[in-house]
Amino acid sequence: MERIMKTFVCVLLINLAIQFSANAQNSRIDSITALMNSPAGESLTDDARMKNYLTIASSNIYSNFEQTIMFARKALIIARQIPNQRGEAMALNFIGIGFSNQSRHDSALSYYRKAQDILLQIHDTVGIIHTYNNMGIVYNNNGNYQQSVQNYSHALEMAKSQGNIEMMAFSINNLAIVYYEWQQFQLAMEYYDQSLALIRQLGDSAKIAVLLNNIGELYVETGKQEEALKNFQEALSISQQSNSPKTTMNAHLNIGDYHLLKRNFNEAQNNYHKALEIGEANNYPLGIVGANIKLAQVLIETGTADDALPLASEGLRMALKLQNQKLIIDARHILYLINQKKGNFRESLDQFVAYTELQDTLFNQNSRKDIARLRTEYETDKKEKEIVLLNQDKAIQSLEIGRQKSLRIYTTLLAILILLAGYLMYNRYRLRQKNIKTELERMNVDIEQRLLRSQMSPHFIFNSLNSINSFIVKNDTKSAQIFLTKFSELIRLILENSRKSMISIEDEIKTLQLNLEIEQLRFNDRFEFEIIAGQEIDTANTYIPPMLVQPFVENALIHGILHKKEKGLIRIHFTMESSAIHAIVKDNGVGREKARTIEHANFKAHESLGLQLTKERLLLLGKKSNNDYQYTITDLTDVNGSASGTMIDVLMPCEVE
Predict the structure, then answer these.
(1) How many domains does the chain have?
(2) Listing from the earlier edge strand, what are the strands of the sheet with 542-544?
(3) How many CB atoms lie within 10 A of CB 612?
(4) Fewer CB within 10 Å: C terminus or N terminus of the chain?
(5) What angle, rounded to 10 degrees, do the helices at 205-221 and 225-241 form?
């Protein structure tokens, strides 16, 4: 728990200064968000809209990473249109922070560099310092400690040249953190002491508390538990006085960990509960997850596994949503222990398998960090020895050369062993991933074939041909020709789309439109429809899996609209949210409850095969990309509480060219 919270605090320190509106009250943020999601928001000046979007993005940095990215992108578009280079740089920086919090390191670095290029053009020194610090965080998380130190050092030198004490303190704190990760604990403590002295000079109580938490975690790592507790308690006292809820929450979590280690379960539970209350009151998801997991651990230790289960389950749900690998591992391990104690051996086994797979992944990441650390230490040691050799006489030099040769031999052997171990682990990982990928692809092909058969069912083809025949019998050759043209075009599109893993939204809309136009002809215009794509979507260059929306449209028509006496309406709306697409299908039919009653009375009730296949397919797509793709159904009512239709929201992956 300590390591997770410490990294989180580091990100907080880095970005605090540029969140020019992030400290606003939640109610103010909510009102700004509501304004920008309403028509009134569109009437604001471009500059005001840009600043509001940046404010919303900033307020979500530590609670909703997807929202940060989405609103920062909106601000970026406006900033480029104005143009406003400082606003553009801030938007790029926020997007980078969002990706960094999602562990998408390459994307984060790309956006930070773009932001830095603009800041260099406009000579914004403070902004440049921030980007150096943010890039240092990414390199540290990747285990590239040399690059991390280099970026933090650049930031520190620039802060010194400006006489900016606050920026100096931030950069020195980050150097302490990278040396902590590097296991250079003495250096880490020296840098923490320097940073703390500068922060005390500024008299900033909130940041003093943050640093005391960090120093306490360093004491934990070096086995000085009592020193750690003193720092955590001082951090708690100062953060409460300075009204810093996030730091107060972290202090309670750290104090809880101390008491859990000492098996003082009542004290541990008390502190975790306080941390949970603060996290829930202020929407700090990492703290909420951590507190739930730790509370579950206390309950297991005290023999109440039944009470621990809902806490651990909620912790896992939120950890998966946050995509935080370390918290997911902790939650799955706790759930494994709980189910083992309860005798739920199947669930216990499932959690253990998931836990060990994630542990393998994390072990590989830590191995890469260790190899990077060993390589850096070796290069540093080698350079130091070369300097010593230059200052020795020939006899000592000869002796040193012999020693260096031995050292190189031993180091080479060590490197070979490390590389061999890394190669074996990598091969094992690749084989496992290959097997998983093969199975997912096989399941995907099977589901797509079944979905195609459901859409090309004999029932649908027979009804369509019967409608064409009806037009011919009535001598309505024009309608028959229109129907036949649309029918053949629809069949062609379905067959073409079924051979592709992704199709453009433009093609998906065309397929849906043809399908609905045919149904209009079949049912004598008993309904109208409209299909809309949001302005943020480039329909020609945004791609989604084919045939995901059609089963929901068919369901809306058959079970909702056709049971109405009045003319029906089906609306389909595509919107983009970060790296996913929402397809919303809304009808004004009789509602699900009345449809079930009617169909039961007519002995027609059945479960849609298309919907079941689509559900399986969304789950499969989620497993392939480690995301949660699903659909939700909402029963609509009018002002009198009577059923007025159904709305389905389908969340699916997308790719943008």
Answers:
(1) 4
(2) 503-504, 542-544, 655-656
(3) 15
(4) C
(5) 160
Return the CA Rg of the chain. Answer: 30
**In 406-560, where do the E strands start and end?**
503-504, 527-533, 542-544
Residue 99: closest CA among 128, 71, 68: 68
pLDDT at position 396: 54
Single pTM value for the model? 0.51
Residue 29, classified by CB atoms within 10 Å of its CB into exposed (0-12), middle (13-18) or buried (19+), is middle
What is the pLDDT confidence band of residue 16, given thresholds at 50, 70 and 90?
very low
Residue where a domain terminates, one of 137, 164, 191: 164
Q: Are residues 400 and 309 in the same domain?
A: no
The contacts of residue 462 (CB under 8 Å, 6+ apart) are none
Domain check: are 150 and 92 in the same one? yes
Domain that holds residue 57: 1-164
**In this predicted structure, which of 132-146, 157-171, 522-536 has the lowest mean pLDDT?**
132-146
Please state which of the ranges 141-155, 401-415, 498-512 shows the lowest mean pLDDT: 401-415
**Interval 622-635: pLDDT, tens:** 777 777 788 899 99
Instruction: Check whether residue 319 and residue 452 sit in a common domain.
Output: no
Q: Of 350, 376, 402, at which residue does a domain stop?
A: 376
Q: Which residues have a Cβ under 8 Å from the Cβ of 54 and sit 6 or more positions away?
A: 20, 21, 71, 72, 75, 87, 90, 91, 94
What does the mean pLDDT of the chain come to?
A: 81
Check if the beta carbon of residue 22 is closer than 8 Å to that of residue 59.
yes
The reply to whether 327 and 458 lie within a common domain is no
Confidence (pLDDT) at 499:
76
**Residue 584: strand pairing partners:** 573, 649
**CB-CB contact of 519 with 557 (8 Å):** yes
Helix intervals (H) in 457-504:
458-473, 477-498
CATH number at residue 131: 1.25.40.10
User: Pick the residue with more confidence: 340 or 86?
Assistant: 86
Residue 25 lies in a domain: yes
- 8 Å CB contact between 569 and 529: yes
Q: How much is the pLDDT for 192?
A: 93
Do residues 349 and 381 share a domain? no
Q: What is the CATH number of the domain that holds 543?
A: 3.30.565.10
| pLDDT above 80 (res 86) | yes
